Amino acid sequence: MCMTLVQKILARATGQSSVRVGDVVEPAVDLAMSHENAALVINQFLEIYKGVPFPPKVWEPSKVAIIFDHRIPAESAKTATNQKKVRGFVARHGIEKFHDIRGDEGGICHQILAEYGYVRPGYVVVGTDSHTTTHGALGSLAFGIGATEMASVWTLGTVLNFEVPGTIKVEAQGRLGPHVSPKDLILHLIGKISAEGANFRVIEFHGEAVRSMSTSGRMVLCNMSVEAGATAGIVPADEETRRYLRDEAHVLQDIPPVVPDADALYDQVVEIDAAGLVPQLACPHTVDNVVAVRERQGVKVDQIVIGSCTNGRLEDLATAAKILKGKKVAPGVRMLVFPASWRVYRKSLEKGYLSDLMAAGAVIMNPGCGCCLGVHQGALADGDVALSTTNRNFLGRMGNPKSEVFLCSPEVAAVSALTGVITDPEEGGGR
Amino acid sequence: MKDGSIRAKVAYRVENDLSTDAIYPGKYMATVLPTETPQYAFADDVEFNQKLRSKQVPPGSVIVAGTNFGCGSSREQAASCLKGYNLIVLARGFARIFLQNAVNLGLRTLVCPDIEAHEGDELEIGDAHVRNLNSGQTFALQPLPEARRAIVAAGGLIPYTRKRLLQSTADAR
Ligand code: SF4
Question: Looking at this predicted complex, what is its ipTM?
Fold first, then answer.
């Protein structure tokens, strides 16, 4: 019936046999996620109920998830007070998918949703966070919304007046080379189609490079799809999705994957020679300002950051630990590592990655968003250059508009930590 | 130009891809209430922030932007802080989440793909066109999609959702 994956999912979520691009639909929400900004959602939710002759009620508490991650532990009294307000609401409304500031179950919201099996193929997931797109990695339609829209979802359980988006199909042919990661693939794509190249549309990822990629890698692709303006990024669920859900998220039921029709109609097809890619770098101050790492080789770096919902997972820490083991972070360079969750932290600890990183001079931070959004835990000085595995390098993103942020893969970050300058792992910085 | 058109001055001009980090920096995100967010509008851009706070920018003034205005974070503060000054954003294009937030909160946004204007220019804004009174040029406005018009007509997403909630409970009875 010529439907793309997003059309298939929206047809199911609206109880129709098909939907067309441009149709206005009201899909039922399977999961609604917020973080600290739940404080604002609560405010707007109570506004909706003003003058309503019955008490406020969350439509389906089991479908709401709230995870503290942006400012943990609280960096200010104001944040602590917001968090306290959210805790009270969570208890009153019986929201069980709540992850507080705890070493046994916390972490970055997008990592927690995947790890805990809250997301399934075919789901409609909304989050008050633009990187909610991450969850397309499990074959769901997942997108960011604002706090007021979330308050509306909490009230009615549907997204109101949603326009069915068109889809860009990305075909990533061949396998990625030994020093090339999913981060390089997505940075390359963003550079190619620009920061608004996918505005109001969905990116559907196909090709050998994607099929042979771990769920963790697919999360990188979908996570950063929003940096090309995409409403969502999405990878059709397959055997690897099943494996992840079963072995890593401990989801016991088998979920029939939703896949696009073979004759689906795409707005645009973008082909990428994944096998021919070299390590990529997004230069200040836009994510689509992308060049090959070797073109900026030698730029002096003050702070290296490994972490975030993009690249703070176990395989990212493993990559960094392997490179830094037995070596030293260059003098004058501060290297900060933020595991994406406490589960990632614990596994990295067990595997010895954290002690290798510490011995090399890296600082292991508590799981959370850390300095990614420029609030705390690693401010930059005027004139500082950061090289980071996070996802945004906008002017002032890391808290100081007089600093610069470059974005790269964990491998590029790690080899550059050793040299103190931006270094291409394919040119001498290799393992 | 039709009746109902308004005149407004361009208070500021910004480039393409202006992110929500620039409109409302992450460090102020713990401030959430729409009554409190305006003080941090463009906080890293000290000069414009000062102008806003010292009321040198009259309500109804226009920010003229390039493409992809409001890209990045979904933080709603970026829309509520501008709404607090009753500004109008006239852009060549918007990022999706920002545009939806603006519609939901009642911040006036206009898509004008070819707009050319400088700071200080006076604009005449109608239903389908914008005229730059300084250059004499006229530019077409893109109509708001049907899906968003209903929310604007209801006065924002809060009243719109409230109406739907009351309808659905009435239907259930
Ligand atoms: S790690 Fe950064 S990009 Fe990811 S959710 Fe946190 S602040 Fe946002």
Answer: 0.96
